[in-house]
Amino acid sequence: MMVFTMHLVSANAGLEKAAAPSVLESQHGSVRPLAAEDLERVATLFLTKFRQQRRHRLNRAIAETAEYMRKIYLDPAGQSGASNALVQINRQGRLGGFLGVLKARYELNGATLNAAIIGPLMADPGADDGSAGPQLLRALHQGEYDLQLTDSANRTSLAFARPMKYQLMSAHCLGWTCIFRPAAMVAATLRRKWPGVPLFALDPCARAFDALAKRRFKPPVQHSPSQRVHREPIDAVQFAERLPTLLSDYALRPSWKDGELPRLLTLAAEKRADGPLHFGGTYDETGKMVGCYAFYGQAGDIANLLQIQASGYHWRETLDSLFADAWDMGCVGIAGQTQSRFMPHLFSYRNLFFRYAGGTMVRSRNAEVTEAVRSGNIFIGGVMGDRWTRLSSDDFGH
């Protein structure tokens, strides 16, 4: 069975379509853009590969997944023409595979670049002879994109894509988890895995254990992050206004226009698995925002970082503010994906653990892009990642 899972990374709305091959033929079948009539079959394949569905609600899950895929692959605001996502159709006319692709814009040294953001790469073992994955990626590489990227490829995908000259950004491949209350975190993890099982008996035990362990698991921030820096809650509009400015020192960075980032954040707020989406900012003594962050979270659950960014030397204060917000909200812990710029600061927090979270890879024939990636001078992940999409974590059909 061939299943590659480079999860969906971005859905910037308001972008013109990149030219993709209308049909790419080979001896194994053809590759063409996703069409409305493919959605039900693609949704079924997605649920088969990535979700375990109860039989009595499978039809409802297929319909909901197909409608969500329509929104992000076929009907993004302002787009027209063929979808950037691709399907492989075998010689018998059956769906052999699917590659979720959405277009984003980057800028480098004043030039605008088209980026193909790679999403789920799936093959149906019943209709595929092992060629669907390579054929889909070859078709993508022949499109008019200046770079292709993903930030959550699994190990199978790493082995598959690196011979195709994808550069691996190792510092971005780790995830981190900071534990606030260990027993409550275990209980929250069990609830996520078995949401239908009553686990109320765990709560008193978790509270008792965490009371005994509170000396070892203290609040991650014991005091105000800085005498000169303070935190305040902000909204999505403020976050969208400030984030591009904080990215100005990256050589290769997103280029959002015409309300694209606010629309992306609106889509991100639809995600359900990790609680509501919250925004925060850190400000210096003059009132200037020097950092911002967005995370999903709710009391009694594990917070999940979507994005964090800071300017200059304000990474530690911004991380402190993020952790303090999650603690004050009653979250039992917080998890996120590493970035090379703030990873050194994570080492100073107690009860923080690292794990493999997914491969971050970039492919380009542009030498300047390749050099920016090699030096880590690219903004990738978060809102230019797949953490905001419902496909990354949500159950469908409830």
* Succession of helices and strands: EEHHEEEHEHEEHHEHEHEEEHEHEEH
Which band does the percent of strand residues land in? 25-35%
Beta strand count: 16
> What fold name goes in the CATH topology slot of the largest domain?
Aminopeptidase
Distance between the termini: 29 Å
Uncertain spans: 1-20
Question: In the residues, how many domains can be counted?
Answer: 2
Features:
398 residues; alpha+beta; Aminopeptidase; 2 domains; 9-stranded mixed β-sheet; 7-stranded mixed β-sheet; 11 helices; globular; disordered N terminus
Describe the 3D structure.
- The two termini are 29 Å apart.
- The model is unreliable at 1-20 (pLDDT under 50).
- The chain has 2 domains: 1-170 and 358-398, Gcn5-related N-acetyltransferase (GNAT) (Aminopeptidase, 3-Layer(aba) Sandwich); 174-180 and 219-357, Aminopeptidase (3-Layer(aba) Sandwich), CATH 3.40.630.30.
- Helix 5 (182-193) packs antiparallel against helix 6.
- Helix content is 29%, strand content 26%.
- With 398 residues, the chain is of the alpha+beta class.
- The longest helix has 17 residues, at 58-74.
